[in-house]
Amino acid sequence: MISEKMSQALNEQVNREMYSAYLYMSMSAHCNQVGLKGFANWFMVQYHEEMLHAMKIYEYIQRQGNEVKLAAIKAPPTSFESPLDMFNQTLEHEQFITRSINDLMELAIAEKDHASQIFLEWYVTEQVEEEENDNDIIAQLKWIKDNPQGLMMLDRELAARMTTVPTDFSKGVESAATAAGA
Ligand code: OFO
Which residue among 26, 53, 147, 174 is buried most deeply as judged by most CB within 10 Å? Predict the structure, then answer.
């Protein structure tokens, strides 16, 4: 079992992860609209990853015998100035998510909740990768500046990003994600 306070904090994290998915879905739609299909693909892969982040927490709350309480997801922005603007916003958002994961870990430590600490470790590691990915792309976009050829090259590179979306949840979210290599 986990405390009611931890359960509530994890439920709030489900909402943040769902918002992350919604934000990247919105960015993907925008990229498609302006013809940046590779960028659109990158953000769509990110959307699927965020959905899994949310679902893993959803499953953990239930496995601990606590209640999942879903809340409204706020609307994401729908217009963006440029690819650099989108990735700056992405990095800023991921830094916010990192802080929220750290807060959850602090709570788990304060409550001597070892199970939640072990569960959250995956998210701590994941956030390092998320911020690194965003920083790498931001660095490239800064080199590219207003060079359309450079942007098209990066668009082709981002078109290659792939993920496997789990479809068999008969043994739970964690098993489905592991089987899909996600
Ligand atoms: Fe982007 O890592 Fe979850 O939110």
Answer: 53
In tens, the pLDDT along 138-166 reads 999 999 998 999 999 999 999 999 999 98
Task: Name the token pair of 128.
Answer: 């390092």
Q: Spell out the alpha helix ranges (H) of 64-164.
A: 83-110, 114-144, 148-158
Distances (CA, A) of 12 to 38, 107, 127: 32, 13, 17
32 closest CA partner among 95, 110, 86: 86
Report the distance separating Cα 86 and Cα 75, nearest Å. Answer: 16
Residues near 122 by beta carbon (within 8 Å), at least 6 away in sequence = 56
The CATH superfamily assigned to 4-175 is Ferritin, core subunit, four-helix bundle (1.20.1260.10)
Any ligand 1 atom below 6 A from CB of 20: yes
pTM of the model: 0.96
In which band, very low, low, confident or very high, does the pLDDT at 182 lie, cut at 50, 70 and 90?
Answer: confident
- Which atom of ligand 1 lies closest to the CA of 97? 4
For ligand 1, atom 4, the nearest C-alpha belongs to: 17
